Amino acid sequence: MPKKKPQDGKPQVNSALEGYEIRINEFGEIISSIPFDQLTKFLDQNVEDKKLRERETNPEGYLENKPVKAKSNRKRKSKPKPKHKTLEAEISQSNEPETHTDTN
């Protein structure tokens, strides 16, 4: 599968985030040109959270949970039991004395 070609130029951003750059250094640390607190504040003001879309706020501004609809009433299937012997069964059988009868 061919590799993706790197894009030239900078991506389009909101005017409030003009000059924003983010990268990961050689130690795996995230380096950002804008403090994360400021970025979080911007996202809270400008982006709708999909998880909170179904919730309603009360007059004080707190979120109220709506009852969650059950997805399914089906019971989960239990895992099938293994057909082979368990380790404990093999150990208990190996500790029992063996009885052999000679037919000579």
Description:
It contains 2 helices and 4 strands; from the N terminus they run ββαββα. The mean pLDDT is 74. The chain has a domain at 15-66. By secondary structure, the protein is α+β, with helices and mostly antiparallel strands.
- Provide the spatial order of strands within the biggest beta sheet: 1-2
- Looking at the structure, what is the overall shape? elongated
Compute the average pLDDT: 74
Please give the share of residues in helix: 10-25%
> Strand tally, please?
4
Number of helices in the DSSP assignment: 2
Task: Kindly summarize this structure in a few lines.
The chain is of the alpha+beta class. It is built from 2 helices and 4 strands, in the order E-E-H-E-E-H.
Layout of strands and helices, then pairs:
Layout: E1 22-24, E2 30-32, H1 36-46, E3 56-57, E4 63-64, H2 87-95
Antiparallel strand pairs: 1-2, 3-4
What structural keywords apply?
104 residues, alpha+beta, two-stranded antiparallel sheet, elongated
